[in-house]
Amino acid sequence: EGVRIQARDGLELVAYLTRAKADTPTPLVLCVHGGPWARDFWGFNSAAQWFANRGYACLQVNYRGSSGYGKSFLHKGDKEWGVGAMQHDLTDAVKWAVDQGIADPENVCIYGGSYGGYACLAGLTFTPDLYKCGVDIVGPSNIKTLLDSIPPYWGPLRNDMLKKIGDVDEDKAFNEKISPLYHVDAIKAPLLIGQGANDPRVKQAEADQIAFSMADKGIPVEYVLYPDEGHGWARPPNRIDFNGRTELFLKEHLGGRAEAFVPPEGNTASFPLKERK
């Protein structure tokens, strides 16, 4: 169902809610879209239906900076990554769901890919008491190293991202402020990371550096790497494999349902944290 959520500064946010139960609070998966200059749409969404089937409410928020709501709304996200209003919108959406009796405040997961993966990491580092767990798929952990890995032929895109994110090239303190990698000590909730080794946008190093840092500090983290994938899952065996692992992770931390997991034939999952030992 389509819902309207008022952010703390009064801005109205359009969001989409899929519920497992309509008469009682349930665990919530906050499913954050990538881009961030993109949007969620009303209509059938396979991930939302999957989460609802497993016993979780799923909330998809078109936070400020999302496309489709005009130039003013798009640019309200400029320089608002991580500790700014873009992340506040997600925090406010969770609090709205709790206040509406939709979400169990003790069982909220933040889940997303690409920018949604970054938002997951930001949520766990900058609002560590809000989330019970997180799932980060191909999300950047350090904005400066993310932009430094952009190939030369993407130069115009890099310049545009600098204008919208902020000048992490020249302002080291700003980059450290908004990059979750520098705030790993604040993480309290378990994290599941999925990454493609051939990702041209968010390099494997983005996952490696935060997974290794968390593991070294004794913070619970699972890291699954697919050597034949890029920015997301293209091969069905790998998509099924990671979804199966995600189900088990959510069941462990949120208490929903999960199918018995058998790694599908043809998957290429590898585990850098185990291989490092």
Short description:
The protein is of the alpha/beta class and 277 residues long. 36% of the residues lie in helices and 19% in strands.
SSE inventory with pairings:
Elements: E1 2-6, E2 12-18, E3 26-32, H1 46-53, E4 57-61, H2 71-75, H3 85-99, E5 103-113, H4 115-126, E6 133-137, H5 143-148, H6 155-165, H7 172-178, E7 191-196, H8 204-216, E8 221-226, H9 236-254, H10 272-276
Parallel strand pairs: 3-4, 3-5, 5-6, 6-7, 7-8
Antiparallel strand pairs: 1-2, 2-4
Brief descriptors of the model:
alpha/beta; 36% helix; eight-stranded mixed β-sheet
Note the main sheet: 8 strands, mixed
C-alpha end-to-end distance = 47 Å
Give the uncertain stretches in residue-range form: none
Q: What order do the helices and strands follow?
A: EEEHEHHEHEHHHEHEHH
Q: Which overall shape is indicated by the principal axes computed on the Cα atoms?
A: globular
Number of strands: 8
* Rg over C-alpha atoms, rounded to the nearest angstrom: 18 Å
What share of residues is helical? 25-40%
Residue fraction in strands: 15-25%
The structure class reads alpha/beta
Q: Can you list the strand order of the major beta sheet?
A: 1-2-4-3-5-6-7-8
Average residue-wise pLDDT: 97
Enumerate how many helices there are, as a single number: 10
Question: How would you describe what is shown here?
Answer:
There is one protein chain. This protein is of the alpha/beta class and 277 residues long. Helix content is 36%, strand content 19%. It is built from ten helices and eight strands. The chain has helices at residues 46-53, 71-75, 85-99, 115-126, 143-148, 155-165, 172-178, 204-216, 236-254, 272-276, and strands at residues 2-6, 12-18, 26-32, 57-61, 103-113, 133-137, 191-196, 221-226. Strands 1-2-4-3-5-6-7-8 form an eight-stranded mixed sheet, sandwiched between helices. Strand 7 (191-196), helix 8 and strand 8 form a beta-alpha-beta unit. The longest helix is centred in the last third of the chain and has 19 residues, at 236-254. The termini are far apart. 46% of the residues are buried. The model has no long low-confidence stretch (mean pLDDT 97).
